[in-house]
Design brief:
Rossmann fold, 23% strand, five-stranded parallel sheet, alpha/beta, 2 domains
Length: 248
């Protein structure tokens, strides 16, 4: 069992990310004792963003990176002058951004874009700034909603698209007899899951972020736990909480 994760002893967990992302988390959760099934529920496609980046980046003072994948996509634009002040949503994104792009000056206190927006507003202290927001096509607008009324210029550039997996002619059922918890990282993943499986709405979901939680509620799920951080450690802690509730 990994020392970094709680003991998930036999908890049956379904992961619903893209195939490569599922693989990475499955290894860690399996080592923690979970019985993991991986179902690829989303597909990631890079978007042509060169022109948008060239227009937005040169006079920006800050770069906000919304995900590890956004950092990876930015790194493919070699030679593009990016802002030297960098902020990231969550420790995993910060680590990947530092590895690929350079040091990160600010990380979201609560691992959400909303908390990062508030922290950045405090850091800027009323001095108008231009901010390049590197994100997904379906990323949240918390950054612009918080900072633009304060006089900052937020330039959002979608670097990749998150697409739900296509539906299947026959959709196997998922209920308490087959799985103990489902991990949903995005609304697209939930959409892809529901296209592939008939899911009992009382199954526990562990979700990443308020957008995923809202999508789960709208889909009729009644047992939703939001991970405190958007990484495998946060997911494992949320799963352990579910496991403790089941045992009590």
């Amino acid at each position: 069992m990994s020392a970094a994760l709680p003991n998930l002893g036999g908890l049956r967990v379904l992961l619903t990310r893209a195939a490569a992302d599922n693989h990475a988390w499955a290894a860690a959760l399996t080592e923690a004792g979970a019985a993991v099934e991986a179902l690829a529920c989303i597909e990631i496609r890079a978007l042509p963003a060169g022109d948008a980046l060239c227009a937005a980046a040169p006079d920006a003072q800050w770069l906000v990176v919304a995900s590890r994948r956004a950092a990876e996509e930015l790194a493919t634009y070699a030679g593009l002058p990016l802002p030297e002040q960098r902020a990231a949503v969550g420790p995993a994104t910060a680590a990947r951004t530092a590895e690929l792009l350079g040091p990160v000056a600010l990380t979201a206190p609560d691992g959400t874009l909303a908390s990062l927006a508030n922290a950045l507003a405090e850091r800027l202290a009323g001095t108008p700034a231009t901010i390049l927001h590197a994100t997904a096509d379906r990323g949240r607008d918390d950054l612009a909603e918080t900072l633009e009324p304060l006089g900052h210029d937020v330039r959002r550039v979608p670097l990749y698209a998150t697409l739900p997996a296509a539906g299947l002619p026959v959709r196997p059922a998922l209920d308490a007899a087959t799985v103990d918890a489902i991990v949903v990282a995005s609304p697209s993943a939930l959409e892809g899951l529901l296209a592939q499986r008939d899911v009992a709405r009382d199954l526990p979901l562990v979700v990443l972020g308020p957008t995923s939680a809202e999508a789960a509620r709208e889909a009729g799920f009644t047992h939703i736990t939001e991970a405190t951080t958007r990484d495998v450690q946060g997911v494992a802690r949320a799963l352990a909480t579910l496991q403790d509730a089941t045992r009590s």
